[in-house]
Amino acid sequence: MAKTGMERLKELEKEIYKCIHCKACRFAYSGEPSREGIGEFAGKQSTVLYEGMLDACPAGIEYGWEAFWNAGKMWIARSILNGDLEFNEEVRDVIMPCITCGQCSVQCESKIPTVDIIESLRAACVEAGVPMIEKHQLVDRLVKELNNPYGGKAAERMKWAKDAGLGKYINNKNAKIGYYVGCTASYRQVEVAIATAKVFEQLGIDFTLIEDEVCCGSPFFRIGAVDTAQELMNKNLETFKDLEEVYFSCAGCYRTFTIDYPKWMTEGEELPFKTMHAFELVSKLITDGKIKFKPNKELKGKVVTYHDPCHTGRHFAHDIEQSMIKKSKNLMMDMRKIDKLIDEWFEIPRVILRKLEEDVGIKFIEMYRIKNNSMCCGAGGGVRAGYPDFSLRTASLRCDEANAVGADILTTECPFCWRNLSDANDLYNHNMQVMGVLEMISKYNLLDISNLK
């Protein structure tokens, strides 16, 4: 039997009681307060000081009240477990405006898996009979009817591939590698899907696009609709079970398949295939000397910066850390080894960007908050659907940081981040171009495969 939200919450009880309300989770760079920043910078919403320790929790920044910061939510979870508090709509309205970005888990010196706890708390709230907010009820209904939260027709899920001349890959039965596209790239940011598939094609990969793919379930794991999420999970596991490997272009889908599915599957079950993000593949080929990039006059001299998606950034880093903690026989861990592995993970997309700098002539400049300390784009955790104004204000704060380093192009490698950052870029007049890394490579025909054998 699959686990319930309350069962997951009880499993995490010891972790919940580790919280001492120190509030380190509130800040980024809490471990390096003297790091040199870029000084005072006038952002689009207010003057922001990008230096030293910064408030890092989007919900805390937006709402201000203690309960919205992570430490408050940990104590809400504790109160639910010990019976001092019961689920109701007031509790729901405090635990839902959280993007589950994981910044709090990174800063926590007790290594508390805060995202796991918040998601389990939400699931338990739904199980207790508290109705989801209206917008979440809507996407839940849409995915049950149409297998995606956007209301797109199933027959049009692969329309982008047909329109882009990639129809031969649809239901390619000889392929042992699948490209799981996801809902956002299928129905909204088709640029990401087309670019990724064309890069695969250029690299000579025999892959398949499976028409029967459904939503990965990520939005529903995040908002507590675990039954819906598990139904989608089971459909995808059945659909992709005969493949050896599945590639992704969406950070949320990748995180969901790789981290969430094993967590919510029946105990003892394992994924029937390996998973990999497209940027991992491209980065490895660069490292192995098999591909490089062509010079480009349009891009030469352009300042490019990179936004780390939370789902492929912090969430994977946290999973690396937690896996090593579980393997440890005592608490005497060498954090330098863990930090080294985490930094190597964050360097993977940067291998691509530095190669683009070397071969193409872009200027790759990092924002002040990067890697594990990155500011969230504001889209995840059900917040974009449920609290769009808050979501876009958060994205604008991230765009401020890109403006502060003079970025012409803000890149990322997640269609959901792409959407939110792009919308905030337009709404708040940040005057940049927002692009996916692989989208940029494909759009400007930068890939040189002359060394590929």
List keywords for this structure.
Rossmann fold, alpha/beta, four-stranded parallel sheet, Fumarate Reductase Iron-sulfur Protein, Chain B, domain 2, 453 residues
| Second CATH tier, the architecture of the largest domain | 3-Layer(aba) Sandwich
> How many structural units, i.e. domains?
3
Q: Assign the CATH topology of the largest domain.
A: Rossmann fold
Largest sheet: 4 strands, parallel
Task: Look at the structure and give the mean pLDDT.
Answer: 94
Portion of residues in beta strands equals 5-15%
Task: Provide the low-confidence segments as ranges.
Answer: none
> What value does the Rg take, in angstroms?
21 Å
Helix content range? 40-55%
Provide a descriptive summary of the structure in words.
This protein is of the alpha/beta class and 453 residues long. It has three domains: 5-127, Fumarate Reductase Iron-sulfur Protein, Chain B, domain 2 (Orthogonal Bundle); 139-287, no CATH class; 292-448, 3-Layer(aba) Sandwich (Rossmann fold), CATH 3.40.50. Helix content is 48%, strand content 10%. It is built from 21 helices and 14 strands. The protein has a four-stranded parallel sheet, sandwiched between helices. A four-stranded parallel sheet has the order 11-10-12-13, with helices on both faces. The longest helix has 25 residues, at 335-359. It is globular and about 65 Å long.
Quick structural overview:
Helices cover 48% and strands 10% of the residues. The protein is α/β, with parallel strands linked by helices and 453 residues long. A four-stranded parallel β-sheet has the order 6-5-7-8, sandwiched between helices. A four-stranded parallel β-sheet has the order 11-10-12-13, sandwiched between helices. It has a two-stranded antiparallel ribbon with strand order 1-4.
